[in-house]
């Protein structure tokens, strides 16, 4: 694990997302874990700002679509898998572009993407290799713990490791 932090307001979660978003580049993938109201969409809104989402644009949880695209300094793909029932559905979405590496992909409810590996661990499907895992948890009315784990990212080259 890289870091575990506590935020005390939605604003603080936005700011943390912003700092991380600034450190992301093409091909990065952020998997968000945590239950209802944990702060995944709030965190995503911060990430998107850090990725250069223009002020007039706003990230919403996709309700009827599972994936939305937003403009930033690179394309921002936002997936919310809450309503995903089967992996077939996911395959039908045609996510080649999302995983093509031209932008950043952010996945809410990433639990649904994880499959057991032979080493008794869990890895994401869809050929996702290096990525960031962010685990959000409700600790109180306004407090959320945010656990950041890097998977197969190079500490020598990836800007996320400069996070204070
Ligand atoms: N420290 C905090 N960080 C983030 N959100 C907070 C915090 N404190 C309170 N909140 C509130 O919690 C709610 C978080 O909702 P949000 O939609 O971001 O969660 P979510 O994990 O995306 O939920 P869902 O699974 O339903 O999509 C917001 O109403 C936000 O204002
Ligand atoms: Mg959400």
Strands, helices and their partners?
Layout: E1 3-7, H1 10-21, E2 29-33, H2 40-50, E3 67-70, E4 76-80, H3 87-92, E5 104-108, E6 114-116, E7 122-124, E8 131-138, E9 144-151
Parallel strand pairs: 2-5, 2-8, 4-5
Antiparallel strand pairs: 1-9, 3-4, 6-7, 8-9
Bound molecules: adenosine-5'-triphosphate (ATP) and magnesium ion.
Would you kindly provide a written description of the structure presented here, covering whatever features stand out?
By secondary structure, this protein is an alpha/beta fold. The protein has a single domain (3-155), classed as P-loop containing nucleotide triphosphate hydrolases (Rossmann fold, 3-Layer(aba) Sandwich). It contains three helices and nine strands; from the N terminus they run E-H-E-H-E-E-H-E-E-E-E-E. The strands form two sheets. Strands 1-9-8-2-5-4-3 form a seven-stranded mixed β-sheet. Helix 1 (10-21) packs across helix 2. The longest helix has 12 residues, at 10-21. The radius of gyration is 15 Å and the shape is globular. The protein starts with a strand and ends in a 13-residue tail after the last strand. The model has no long low-confidence stretch (mean pLDDT 93). Adenosine-5'-triphosphate (ATP) binds next to helix 1 and helix 2.
């Amino acid at each position: 694990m890289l870091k575990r932090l506590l935020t005390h307001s939605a604003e603080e979660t936005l700011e943390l997302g912003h700092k991380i978003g600034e450190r992301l580049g093409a091909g990065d993938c952020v998997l968000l874990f945590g239950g209802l109201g944990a702060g995944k969409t709030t965190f995503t809104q911060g990430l998107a700002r850090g990725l250069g989402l223009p002020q007039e644009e706003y990230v919403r949880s996709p309700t009827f679509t599972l994936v939305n695209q937003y403009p930033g300094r690179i394309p921002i793909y936002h997936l919310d898998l809450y309503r995903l029932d089967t992996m077939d559905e996911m395959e039908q979405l045609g996510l080649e572009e999302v995983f093509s590496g031209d932008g950043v992909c952010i996945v809410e409810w990433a639990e649904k993407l994880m499959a057991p590996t032979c080493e008794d661990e869990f890895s994401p499907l869809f050929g996702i290799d290096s990525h960031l895992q962010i685990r959000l948890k409700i600790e109180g009315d306004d407090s959320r713990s945010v656990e950041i784990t890097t998977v197969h990212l190079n500490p020598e080259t990836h800007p996320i490791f400069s996070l204070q």
